[in-house]
Amino acid sequence: MRRLAPALRLDGADAELIDLIKSIVAACKEISFRVGQGELSDVLGSTLNENVQGETQKKLDVISNELLKDLILETGSVMAISSEEEESTVPGNPQGKYLVTFDPLDGSSNTDINSLIGTIFSILPAPQGADPADPSIFLQPGTAQIAAGYVLYGPATLMALTTGKGTKMYTLDKTYGGFLLTTEQVSIPGVTSEFAINMSNQRYWQPAMQNYIADLLKGKEGPRGKNFNMRWIAAMVGDVHRILCRGGIFAYPRDLKDPKKPDKLRLMYEANPMSFLVEQAGGASTTGYERIMKIQPVDIHQRVPVILGSKHEVESCLQYHQPM
Ligand code: AHG
Ligand code: MN
Ligand code: MN
Question: What's the 265 CA to ligand 1 centre distance in angstroms?
């Protein structure tokens, strides 16, 4: 079992990047410990505040955000951070090589039911000489990511990580406190019979997704000629983890439930890092009309439709989408 840092060194990651990832991991270990204590650590429940997205912040959203922000900025190698829980970006070292954008706690609604939650992060290059307080330095497409990952706080605490040389998984060994490499190369099966989507939004989807899911539901008797199974964890980090482990397709498509918010998932700290992990594991990721990692962001909290997972199934779904 190899430890985090030697595994990264073998992949050619430089010392500063390894230190930065180790700092993110240190914050996540602390979050993992507190999550593991449940009710005993007084981290469950909501605060009285809303974040910039208009969502009530859970105590754990705030605690996780503070831990990550402090440890990441302390490295000195980061020019600025951007977080789901911060309205604007937070400047760091003007000479820093990296930018980090993160969702401190994904699946917040699962905190109070002891179900899957996680932290998602993405590391981008910092444009040298730029103003660390200028949020536009973050507006880089997903293809610019240097590294991306998530830490899943489940029965075991796991990390999926890519630096662009495949996707690896590490498991937190709670007996000595370090992450050990447990999957050298994640490989998503190309074919699947499992889909993940919030079916309660069905009537609000656009025709392409309506038709695609309707055909999956027809099963053996329908055009796909096989039965499909459905899973929904209500935490992208849990659904994507399952897909990295055994394949499947995950979709959070555009819907008209709230016309002011047609898309749910955030490009910079949900869709892009997950797309990088999925593509590096042999899967595909799209909005239905374009590759997610090619999108030029216009806002740090921008939302996008997401369809990702097993390559052939994503391709089947794309056949229902006509170019706009
Ligand atoms: P967050 O907790 O960071 O706000 O993200 C939750 C997201 C995502 O993780 C998940 O896939 C989706 O919201 C769940 O949406 P539903 O409430 O529609 O199930
Ligand atoms: Mn999230
Ligand atoms: Mn979140």
Answer: 7
